[in-house]
Amino acid sequence: MNEFASNVERHRRELLLHCYRMLGSLPDAEDAVQETLLRAWRYRDSVKEGAPLRPWLYRVATNACLDAIAGDGRRAVLAARAAADDGWTGEPEDVVWLGPIPNSILEPTTPPARTPEAMTLMRETIEIAFLTVIQLLTPQQRAALILCDVLDWSAKEAADLLDLSVPAVNSALQRARVRLRERLPSRKPPWPANVDASAAERDLLKKYVEASESADFRAFASIIREDATFRMPPQPGVAEGREAMFKLWVEGGFGSERFGRLHCVVTHANLQPAVAAYVCRPGDSIWRAMALDVLRIEDGLITEIVVFMPENFPAFGLPMVMDPAPAQEMNQYQKSELL
Q1: Which pLDDT does position 332 carry in this prediction?
Q2: Are residues 168 and 25 in the same domain?
């Protein structure tokens, strides 16, 4: 029994990533993994002797996620609409449960062989844009896409796991791929080929932090593409374009005395650069967690900013409040992220 538990535990991280892709929320994925482990223990005798454990665990985890989707009214409504109307594609703001995942969870302590192809696949299939789009698929389409196009399973293997026919899996895959082509943003590389990507990203993040802390819209305009988008799940609506984005910020008080001062810390989420913002309101002496900005970069400019609520800070090892002294210590953390 201890050996079984130990063997299952070795797959916890990859099961968490699978559940995160299926559900688009780290807390929900963690709950699904816990449910997976409970079910695995409960039904351990159903594993055929000599059969590989990994596919069986993915079956259990996928079923746990499908049950979670069916049991969540918000997800179930979107799933029903996607299943009932082949022309319905949904909108990003419909995915109100969307949340980030820290890079520390995505990057294993002992990295596997990292070919450029494998890294590109990983990056594209964990970024916020990809996660948003696949949440608007039917649960079966989403599972088939993840199993076949992310995990590289065959249609037969996916069909066995999902209790579907191979033609049904291929049909689900075809529909899912069409949706991705229709809804995913352009896939330009983050940086030109002749640019040191690490140095360029550090420089851009430094400019973003400085612009945020000084409310410098001119500086923002130099690093944010004119057609960039801005959204704040679970708030409805998307600001389309840099000017619409700036207008929304001004309407929210950003840059005004009543808004207060910002202190920013660099981090990374979903294999994308991110900036955690703390605010000190007028009359307050404490920096309080305000928002986590996850940035998408194309050709050296920011093309999307997705802002998440401060309850995500603890998962990134970031405090919810800081007094002025710890804020200075966090500056050292930020510098280390930029080195």
Answers
A1: 47
A2: yes
> Exposure of 265 by Cβ count < 10 A (0-12 exposed, 13-18 middle, 19+ buried)?
buried
Instruction: Identify whether residues 202 and 308 lie together within a single domain.
Output: yes
Cα distances (angstroms) measured from residue 46 to each of 60, 218, 300, 322: 12, 63, 52, 51
What pLDDT was estimated at residue 216? 97
Give me 195's structure tokens: 């640019």
Which domain-ending residue is among 154, 183, 212?
183
The predicted structure's pLDDT at residue 119: 52
Same domain flag for 154 and 36: yes
| Residue 275's CATH number | 3.10.450.50
Q: Is the peptide bond before 234 cis (omega within 30 degrees of 0)?
A: yes
Q: What is the pTM of this model?
A: 0.90
Burial 46-56 (b: 16+ CB within 10 A, else e): eeeeeeeeeeb
Question: At residue 317, does pLDDT exceed 60?
Answer: yes
* C-alpha dihedral sign at 74, 75, 78, 80: negative
For residues 125 and 211, membership in a common domain is answered with no
Please report whether residue 43 resides in a domain.
Answer: yes
Residues 169 and 208 in one domain: no
More confident: 117 or 42: 42
Query: Kind of pairing, strands 224-231 and 238-240?
Result: antiparallel
Q: With both helix axes pointing from N to C terminus, report the angle between 26-42 and 12-23 in degrees, rounded to the nearest 10.
A: 130
- pLDDT, residue 173, reads 95
Please check whether residue 221 lies inside any domain of the structure. yes
Radius of gyration over alpha carbons of the chain, in Å? Answer: 21
Sort 25 into a burial class: Cβ within 10 Å, 0-12 / 13-18 / 19+: buried
- Domain that residue 201 falls in: 197-338
Burial category of 2 from C-beta neighbours within 10 Å (exposed 0-12, middle 13-18, buried 19 and up): exposed
